Amino acid sequence: MAPDGTVSEVPFKYGVSNPTALAVNPEGTVYVAKTLDGPSPRIYTMSVNGTQSYIDVPELHAPTDLRFDSVGNLYVVDSWNNRIVRIKPGGIQETIPPGNLDRPYAVHVDAVGTITVSNRAPGAGITRYTAAGVQTTIPLTGLDEPTGLDYDMDGNLYVAQSGTGPLGPRVIKYTPDGVQSNVAFPLNSPDALYKPMGICVRDGFLYVADQVYGILKQAI
């Protein structure tokens, strides 16, 4: 989708029957993960000149998110295997020490190498790794099936919650000093959330990909 709202399709010659994640590197190459591709799901790529290829990740199963860091490493969330795979620009693959990952869904990597991961399993919460590998759990209250996550320029964390528990689907804001609040998406209105799965924060706006309502935009 172009800034003016024009929508176009990107044809992949290999076919993308069940895409689950997408990322674009600084050079403009598009990376798409899909779960159904024979015995081994793959990550497909398309460069700006249209050249297409793919990356095989051994034992990859149910990739749910892709994210690049500031030096060009690609992070792949392999949900059913409870791991994060890092693919370096030269193609070397390594697994981030899993720690307390449990059904990981989304990943974020900041400029200093801090990795934040949402876990959909009950009680698993949000895992954070420092660049040195130290793991902590972000203490969010009432979290129920967290999915997408992102940070704004002030370091505030935004987490989409897709669960149908007492607090329902929502987007949580968590500040660097530990204050938790909900982003206002009024219930019983056209902007209500039903099943938010992905989020993105850009230029003072929060974009939410909802399985029912499509893409929602909210000022923050």
Automatic annotation (TrEMBL):
InterPro entries: 6-blade_b-propeller_TolB-like, Vgb. This is SMP-30/Gluconolactonase/LRE-like region domain-containing protein. It comes from Nocardia arthritidis.
